[in-house]
Hints:
By secondary structure, the chain is α/β, with parallel strands linked by helices. The protein contains four helices and four strands, in the order H-E-H-E-H-E-H-E.
Amino acid sequence: xxxxxxxxxxxxxxxxxxxxxxxxxxxxxxxxxxxxxxxxxxxxxxxxxxxxxxxxxxxxxxxxxxxxxxxxxxxxxxxxxxxxxxxxxxxxxxxxxxxxxxxxxxxxxxxxxxxxxxxxxxxxxxxxxxxxx
Length: 133
């Protein structure tokens, strides 16, 4: 979170949620935190998240589980910002990601945005597969 956002909470209402890539099978959010740091340095409130990778050892895995994790993350972001004094009714969000993370952002924004407690206004897709055919 940029320092300026903590000083002018009434002027900051835009968030970027960046989701990591890794073929849905590997990697984690710390591998891509440079994106969050970059967006933060440009003045955006930025968050990232991990998700359950799709490995058989995790048992009942599915893309829907990851979608539920994205929904929970967005709720958590809103809750934390409201606790810090931001107006929860004015928040807006962009979702961005790389590769598998970009696919997850597109899937969420175009298929599950109605579940988002923060309205999704923009999607940034970096190297997302949009078809696996």
